[in-house]
Design brief:
The protein is about 40% helix and about 20% strand. It is an alpha+beta fold. The strands form two sheets. Strands 2-3-1-4 form a four-stranded antiparallel sheet.
Amino acid sequence: MLVLRCSSKEKSMDKLLKMAQKVPYALLFLKPAAAKTKAELEFAFFLARGTIKSRKSISAKLANEAMLFLSGETNFSSAVRKIGAKKTSDFVLVAERDLKLAKLKKALNLKKAKAHKLSAWGKKRKNYSQGELAIEKMAISRIKK
């Protein structure tokens, strides 16, 4: 998994997202505050792969499904409003797999792309870490009443 803090030369997120479709792996474009722990990002992709494989996904695209899990939403528009990147001048790019940075910079016309350090599990909250709580929330987000 590759997590980068980026800025792009592109003016709109729509154009940047269209350019990202040419990259062969799933990419998430998040608000900088949305990415808290590495564990929750990895688990979002894990759950997304599982639901797509079992044909119980809301979206057919891995990145969209991962964003739904990460946000805790079942509506993609709500998920984007909640955690999606709004401006091309500052966002976090999460790639499902490690990609060559030079190719990614060229494909997305990135001005700046630096590794975004995330802790594995995050801060402790009483007996649990931030990552553990986020993973639990994602795991139960699709349970129907």
